[in-house]
Design goal:
alpha/beta; 8 helices
Length: 208
């Protein structure tokens, strides 16, 4: 009788394993230098700080960081199929476009690439969030405005969750920026971590 009970217990645990393993939210972050920790030690980056916070708070959230410094939307499109297959995320957060904008890429092309990134992620079964990206006004107000508005447009057309930019408050404070005035310094990382903690929580709650 005891042996039968133990066998049933083992079977029950094995049956439950797939459910417990998928209970974790696996967020794949597709980004650029702002999320790759450019100019910082790896343990200083906001992504690493946020993951540590999730661990400390025992939140079942894993951030899979595929951010690469200098990455553009077309670069990401070449890799996303592999990333999705390897990591099998439940969620995808797209933080991309800054490098496209700095290089003056056509807005129509930016929208096309962002749309494809969202669609590929959705087709792989992931829930997608698209972060608004803002760029310096060097290329003029018309281009800058069209660039930012493209994120609203793509989110609306694809049904992706629209997430505000994490650099809006940081970028205007020189004490939080590296000497190049483009990348946040180590002092800014906890601020970005806390901002993203709140925004990701809003996102996850909006779809549950």
């Amino acid at each position: 009788m005891t042996r039968l009970f133990l066998n049933l217990l083992v079977i029950s645990i094995l049956l439950l394993l797939p459910f417990t393993s998928t209970a974790k939210d696996r967020i794949m972050l597709i980004g650029d230098s702002l999320s790759a920790g450019y100019g910082l030690k790896q343990d200083q980056s906001w992504v690493n700080l946020l993951q540590n916070k999730y661990v400390e708070e025992k939140k079942p959230i894993e951030i899979i960081n595929t951010a690469i410094s200098g990455q553009t939307t077309d670069n990401a499109l070449l890799k996303i199929d592999t990333w999705l297959q390897v990591h099998q995320p439940s969620h995808v957060l797209i933080e991309l476009g800054g490098n496209d904008g700095i290089r003056g890429f056509p807005i129509k092309l930016l929208k096309k690439h962002l749309t494809e990134l969202v669609k590929k992620s959705t087709q792989a079964g992931a829930t997608v969030a698209l972060m608004e990206i803002q760029i310096p006004p060097n290329l003029g107000p018309r281009y800058t405005s069209m660039f930012t508005n493209s994120y609203h447009s793509v989110a609306k057309q694809t049904g992706a969750y629209f997430m505000p930019y994490f650099m809006t408050e940081v970028a205007v404070d020189k004490t939080l920026m590296q000497n190049d005035n483009l990348h946040p310094n180590a002092k800014a990382q906890p601020i970005i971590r806390d901002f993203m903690d709140i925004e990701i929580d809003k996102w996850l709650k909006s779809i549950k």
